[in-house]
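S1.2 Input.
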Amino acid sequence: MWGSGRRRALRAVVIGAAALGGPAALTGPLLRIGSNQPREYVFVYLAYVAMMAVLGGLWPALLAAAAGFLLSDYYFVPPVRTLTLFDEFDLVNLAVLFGTALLVGGLVSRRRRAQQRAVALAGELSLANAELVRLNREQAEAARVALELERTQRQVRVLEETDRARQELLANVSHELRTPLSSILTGSTALAGRADLAPARAELGSIAAEARRLGRLVGDMLDMARIEGGALDLNPEPVEVGEAVEAAVDRLHRHSPARSVRWDPAAAAGVRVLADWDRLAQVLDNLVGNADRLAPPQTPIGVEVAAAEDAVVIAVVDAGPGVPAEMRDRIFDRFVRGEDSGDSPGTGLGLPIVRAIVEAHGGRVWLEDPPAGGARFAFTLPGAGPPDRTDSPPARR
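S1.3 Output.
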C-alpha cells in the first residue's frame, strides 16, 4: 500500500512537470522561428493543452492552459515581454485555452472515471461469478455428501440388522448345541456312577470326556464366530489381577487337581487392570489349560504378574517341550496345535481367541522361550491404577 501511494505521488509530479514544462519547451523553438502573426502560436499551445487533457485529465490541462497563455501573452502578444491584455483577441485566446482544457479535460476525466467504474464493476462481477461458482460447487459437494451419508446410513442399518441376526443365530446355535451336549454329559456321568454298570464305566467315562471336548470345541468356534463377526462384547472394569489368577487356578484344579501352580500373590497384590472379568478369565483358562496339556505330569505351571507404568504384564510359563521353530510364526493362527501330552487334546482355537480378546482390550500377546525350557506366553492389559480402599467388592470366581 505504501508503494502504490508513492507511485501515485510520483506520477502526479511527472504530469504536473509536463503540464508546466511543456509550454516552456515549446516557447524556445517558436521564438527562434519567428512569424508575422505571432498570435497564431496560441494554437500550438492549444494543441498541447488538448494533449495534456487526453493524457493527464482536467487539472494538468488547466495547468498547461495557464502556462501556455502566460507564455504566449508575454512573448508573442504586443506589447511583448509584458503580461497585459491588449485587445479582445487576447481574451478570446484565454477563453479558448481554458475552454479547451475544461472541455477536453472534463470529457477525458469522465471517460476515465467511467473506465474505472467499469473496471471495478468487472472486478465485482468476476468476484461474484467466482463466489457463485464456489457456492455451486459447495452445493454440489453438499448434495454428494448428503447422498453418500444417506447411502452410508442405509448400509449401517443393513449391517446392524445383519449383526443382530448373526447374534441371534449364534445364541440359538449355542443353545441348540450346548443343550444336547449337556444332556449327554449329565447322563453319561450319572450312568458311570451306578454300581450295576461298573463294566461299562470306562466307556461311559470316554463318552463324558468326548462330550466335554465337544463342548469346548463348540464354545471356541462360537467365540471365534463372534470375534470375526465383530460381535465380541466387552464390559471393561477395574479388575484385581490376583483375584483373576486365583480363580483361574481354582478352575484348573477342578480338572487337574494334581497340577501345581506357582505364583506370587504378594507380587499381584494391589495390581489392577481395566478388563472384562469373564473375558480375562477366558484368556487365563486357555493359557493355563494349554500349559496343563503340554507340560509333563508333576511339573509346575508358573504365573507371573508384573506392573509397568501404564500396563500390566501377565505370563504363564510351563516346562513342556516348547513350541517348535516351524510353528512359532503361526502359533496364534486358527487350528494350529502343538503336541498334546494330555488325554484331552486342544481345539486349536484357544490361542487365536486369546490374541483376539487381548487385542480387543488394547493389549498384545507374544511367545517367549524361558531359559529353563518350555514356553512362556505373556500378554499385556491396560493398568487401572491403585485400588480404591473405600470400595472392597467381594472376590469373584
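S1.4 Remarks. The mean pLDDT is 78.
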